[in-house]
Amino acid sequence: MKRLLSRSVWSTLMKGIIALSLGLLALVWPIIIISLLVVSLGSYILIDGVFSLVSALRKRKTEANWDWLFLNGMFGIFAGVLTFFNPFVIIAAVAFLVLTK
Questions:
Q1: Using one digit for the tens of pLDDT, what is the confidence trace for 4-62?
Q2: Please, what's the largest Cα pairwise distance for the chain?
């Protein structure tokens, strides 16, 4: 039990150090960090869209509502590609969503 707790403490400590380091980097180089976050978000959205599209195509013969999953996949792919070609649109959209809540 002690061994398990000691591993947990070290992993929690490492997560905290990494989070603190990223926070300090964001203060020092905000443009680079925002760019990195936009690229990461765009990659995630694109990959999620591809997986949704593949899942919809697999379910098209067995499920009645596969078309919504297909549209979700197409929208995800479009948004992911848009992120790479025009990242400022995504920055503005995320800022709008954050500031209106």
A1: 555 667 778 888 998 999 889 889 998 888 888 888 889 999 999 999 999 999 988 88
A2: 53
Q: What is the mean pLDDT of the chain?
A: 86
Helix ranges, 1-101 (H): 2-28, 30-59, 66-85, 87-99
Tokens 């709008």 sit at which residue?
A: 96
- List the chain domain ranges: 30-99
Residue 54 gets the label, from left (phi > 0), alpha (psi -120 to 50) or beta, of: alpha
Q: Distance between terminal CA atoms of the chain? A: 43
Q: Cβ(68)–Cβ(41) under 8 Å?
A: no
**Contact indicator for 83, 41 with CB cutoff of 8 Å:** yes
Read off the pTM: 0.71
